[in-house]
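Hello support,

Our group uses your service weekly, and this is the first time we've seen a run hang past the timeout. The protein is Aminopeptidase N. I'm not sure whether the cause is the sequence or the server load. Input pasted verbatim:
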Amino acid sequence: MNRRTPAVPLLALLLALALLGTGCTGGVEGTPGAAGLRDPYFPGLGNGGYDVTHYGLKLDIGPAADGPRAPAADRLRGTATITARATQDLSAFHLDLAGLDVESATVEGRPAAVNRAGKELTIRPAAAVEDRLRKGRTFTTVVRYSGSPQAITDADGAEEGWLRTADGAVALGEPTGSMAWFPGNHHPSDKAAYDIEVTVPEPLTAVSNGEPVSRRTADGRTTYHWRTTEPMASYLATVAVGRFTTRQSRTPDGIRLFTAVDPEAAARGGSALTEVLDEIPAVLKWSAEKFGPYPFTSAGAIVERTGDSSYALETQNRPVFPGPPDTALLVHELAHQWFGNSVTPRTWRDMWLNEGFATYAEWLWAADHDGVPIGESFDEAYADDANWAFPPADPPTAADLFDAPVYGRGAMVVHRIRLALDDDRAFFALVRGWTKAHRHKNAATEDFTAYVEKATGRDLTELWDAWLYGGSRPPKEG
Ligand code: ARG
Ligand code: ZN
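Update from on-call engineer: The timeout came from a worker crash unrelated to the input. Re-ran successfully.
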């Protein structure tokens, strides 16, 4: 130590004390993270200032009241442990949660202030831990919550969120339902790993995404622990609670398979259902040849009763089907594992990249297995007026995100690229290159058009203008 300059450390000490007095230890004052990510359709969805890397969800599920007639999965008590990296110096941040009561929250182990305004939770960490939320640092938030989770009616009238079934519940979330059962950054641009532990009363089973880690039973209640290590968008998270017949196996390529079938769906589906589910390995193998290596460790299916949900969803690893699916629907939902689940839309405007490719997968399957030439599928879609209501790259409102043009016209865009290349080997190499370039990431429409132009070395402006962005039906020739 230099004894000749005692004034310097003294000044430093005074300065540090002054800064502490303002609650600012590093000279930079944190600011609150944004309450939304300005999605074109849902501006308030998601939150700014942080990036979730892992959700640890512990859900205790049971009947709201005792007695044999009480619905089995009406009450939820949850603990969400959210690990996130700050992308700015944060003084506070938001989480999305619909319904349910927040009991408490901590950030970095210290009690945090929680403010609730509709679906927005504002979490304000204790001043003592604020420096742990500096840009680039990883911090942990724990939210304890409970209540009776609700169904959410989408803009298009579909029901999602927490859907009660005859013997339990199923959670579905495309586009906004996942906030009905856990707090988080509910926008597709923030993908994360998950550990989902669900405790249910016997004899119910809880099925979720990823792979099973453990199963423990105590006092008539069983905890099922499922782990998803590959990044997952929150709209693809699911929990299905009910009586299920479950099966585990492996494809010849080593992909782990888990299927769960509601007994009533099994009775209704009969041997046809068994046959469809037995096709999963072949569909995965065929898809991998077309689209590139399967992006996940495990696959499978959850088959609910007809009417338990208003739509099938490509929930990660294992799609949920409302009733026994046919092969075309199975092919569609498994194709989403590449298009949507691995390569995820950047915003909800990029939905056609999911549905266009999944629909095209159905056309490809029909061409390879059912003798339906791809040109016939294209012609049928082309002739259908419903596909021309709006351009796939720009659905007018949130109510149109799942309308015919996003599916049928989206698939037509893909086929027009194939026709423009006039070389099937080059076309499928292009498709595999696309899933490889954006594997486990997000991509927007502009990323796709730029990718195709770069990979082919061609200016495809006319194709995009006519088929992707144009307001009217272009001529088939030209
Ligand atoms: N992505 C689902 C499919 O495989 C459809 C989801 C529909 N969601 C809705 N809110 N309508 O086609
Ligand atoms: Zn789809």
